[in-house]
Amino acid sequence: MRFGLPTFRGGTHPPEKKELAKDLVVEAFPIPGLLAVSLSQGIGAPSKPVVGVGDEVKRGQLIAEPGGFVSAALHAPTSGKVKSIGECPHPVGLRANGIFIEPDGADEWHPDAQQELSEEQVGALDAKEIIAKVGAAGIVGMGGAAFPTHVKLSPPPDKKVDTVILNGCECEPYLAADYRVMLDRPEDIVKGLKLLVKAVGAKRGIIGVEANKPDAHERLLREVRGVEGLSCKMVAVKYPQGAEKQLIKALLNREVPSGGLPMDAGALVQNVGTAVAVWEAVGLGRPLTERIVTVSGECVERPGNLLCRIGVSLGDLLAARGVRPGARRLISGGPMMGLAQWNVDIPVMKGTSGVLVLDEPAPPKGVACINCGRCVEGCPAHLMPNRLSVLGERERWEDMMPWNVLDCIECGVCTYQCPAKRPIVHWIKQGKSELRLLKMKAEAEKKKKEAPKGVPAE
Amino acid sequence: MSPEAKKNIANLPEKWLVTTSPHLRSPETVSQIMWTVVLALLPACVAGLVVFGWYAGLIMAIAVLSAMLSEAVVQRVLRRPMSVSDGSAAVTGLLLGCCLPAACSWYVPAVGSFVAIFVGKQVFGGLGRNYFNPALIGRAFLQFAFPGQMSMAKWKMLMRKPLLESLAGNIFNVGAGTPADAMSAATPLTTVQPPFPHEDMTSDITPLEAVGRSLHNTAENPWDVVRDLGLGNIPGCIGEVSKLALLLGGLILIANRYVNWRLPLAYIVTAVATVVLLPVKSGGDWYGLWAGQWNVVGQLAVIHVLSGGLFLGAFFMITDMVTSPTTSRGQVFYGIAAGVLVALIRVYGGYPEGVCYSILLVNAGRLLIEKCSVPRVFGTGLKKA
């Protein structure tokens, strides 16, 4: 029914601003005098340190193990000494701890890391072994959410994943880290994709690239040509084309059921950067200790795509690349879904795709909704953000439920487009967390009622 | 942060601005939308000036100024934030001015705009909270308050006199009888209003001939009649006569995505289709479609599309963002409902024109229609695999 490139219904097209950084070759960022590896890298339980203050560590050495099922291992990003373990500022504003490492300058690998496997050895690995290696290397989703990859690769046995999708959309403005990876390392992306396909027992792997990166698409296409089950497809340039559910819709024409996960639609989505990390973990035996971060924005003097160690602080990056006067916002991630930062001591995490310094002023105070319908038209989840915003404004959280507030993916299209400048997605996020609290309260009360009355003390 | 970076870093703000995402906002604002609507209405206003003369300009100016003044005064009295500059009051005033007859007295737009702003908008809480189109509330009020003045749409004034003379002559003359520089003619919709036959529509002439006769007092080439209807060389309200100018304005709105093209299309098509479908008799016999008179059907359709306030209503009134549904599907339902109402009023009602009331009536059902057209939420209602 639709003409043109595959996509989903809704979305918007903010100014791409990719020109600031997309043509800049990846540079290795020099290791600064202090690294802070946060123990809360992403969703899930914080990791548990296995080193003590004063310990000498080598690059790639395990320094913290998973603290639960949904949690990731952490490795020393360089060689040096553990200076302290304590409170470390966190991008989400969590109270979290981190391991502070003073580099010794030698940047020596730990002997356990870097156990390269030959092609035959890699080919001989079975799914379980791949997943174990991915878990041991501490790999998380590198598109931003930082969900532990080995968990995503272990769906319950009743869920069959037939397709692995690699997300090369990078639909957020400014960011170019994935683009550079696709240009520079297409063969590693495809090697990683093969491993992912094998790990979940899928039939095929598809790489989805937005049409504004034709050169990246072409390079990947060359790599997958002739490989059975693998393909590379262009998708329409539109935000949020890189959102998991929207990408699945575009490429497979399947909808992830409300409240479900991609595996409920038989799909697994991974970022292209994650695929490279998976290849490095399995093929080269290297744990995840570095990533590419796009440092960009109107207020960065020398934007760039920097290959930097996990634990480099945002301040280190900004000091090296220069901040222009007039800076107002510091964003970790993209401008549409990224997190505003308040402190330059916050370290780069495994999921930090970009660091942006913007002069975008505070939005004007919103006025009453004029029913223009921009949000309804743009919502990729097909919600009615206008109704949700009016309910949120009045703090009628429970009334948001019948309007499917929990299906919101918080992409921010509604708020970006709103001519009345209403903070729609802010109210939705608040509504979701208020509803979560209400649910917890109700459950606690129910438990109290059901619990048998204690025997009165004599 | 490493100690060496601490020394080198410069130009950091004292405090970073921390908000929830998104950190970019589109440049579009409410006042930009409103002033663009004013701009899109200008072609129709200019056409009105050409057709009706300078006095029509005075009527529109009074309507706009009165609307903005009323907004300012009401907001001051109710201690609401002042928002006259956002252009929404100007839109309301100009729209009201467009649907007034050019020959009405100067106080008609003044009173109408006050009612539009106060009763139509501020009583509900201001822009975005009103249920009815404010300009149409003003117009509906004037229809009852000054029925004589509102029926002056049948006058057609020509720009024969210089500016000052025209203004002075009309201001002092209006209300006393025929406007100073006007010609009388029945509006095309009055001409084709059932029941047939009547004075203008005898059974031996086609609708276009009848309209042509009433416009020019001679039966002319039917294409000349269509041209006059399209360009606006006909009696009617100031801003509604030139369909070409309104279409141009409508295209500006559609190009800016302020109007979803489906809504005006659904409205116009439904209105005309229903007009020709409704059974009508002429002197005891079936007339038009029900008598298989295809010639009449075609002519009636053309006259109904190009007459009265249908274009003004379709592009500028029913599409008012505040009072129309937000969903695409809802807008189609909305246009269809209003189109049926227009046709019923035009064919069976007491007034020759029904655009104003048809839109006010569907305004009342807006939330209901929107609720019935909520899109299927992504990932819900899927077939169980």
Query: Largest interface by residue count?
Result: A-B, 80 and 53 residues
- The pLDDT mean of chain A sits at 93
What gross morphology of chain A would you assign? globular
Helical segment count of chain A = 13
Strand content bin of chain A: 15-25%
Total DSSP E strands of chain B: 4
The H/E string of chain A reads: EEEEEEEEHHHEHHEHEHEHEEHEEEHHHH
Reading side by side through the largest sheet of chain B, how are the strands ordered?
Answer: 1-2
Quick summary of this structure?
The complex is a heterodimer of chains A (458) and B (385). By secondary structure, chain A is an alpha/beta fold.
Structure description:
The complex is a heterodimer of chains A (458) and B (385). The termini of chain A are far apart. In chain A, the strands form 4 sheets. Chain A has a 6-stranded mixed sheet with strand order 1-14-13-17-15-16, with helices on both faces. Chain A has a 4-stranded antiparallel sheet with strand order 2-8-7-4, with no helix packed on it. Chain A has helices at residues 119-124, 127-136, 149-152, 177-184, 186-200, 214-224, 244-252, 272-283, 314-321, 374-378, 385-393, 413-417, 424-450; strands at 27-28, 35-38, 48-49, 56-57, 62-65, 74-75, 80-88, 96-103, 163-168, 204-210, 230-235, 267-271, 290-296, 304-309, 329-332, 339-340, 354-358. Chain A is of the alpha/beta class and 458 residues long. Chain A has 13 helices and 17 strands. Chain B is mainly alpha-helical and 385 residues long. Helix content of chain B is 56%, strand content 3%. In chain B, the strands form 2 sheets. Chain B has a two-stranded antiparallel sheet. A two-stranded antiparallel ribbon of chain B has the order 3-4. At the A-B interface, helix 9, strand 15, strand 16, helix 10 and helix 12 of A face helix 1 and helix 2 of B.
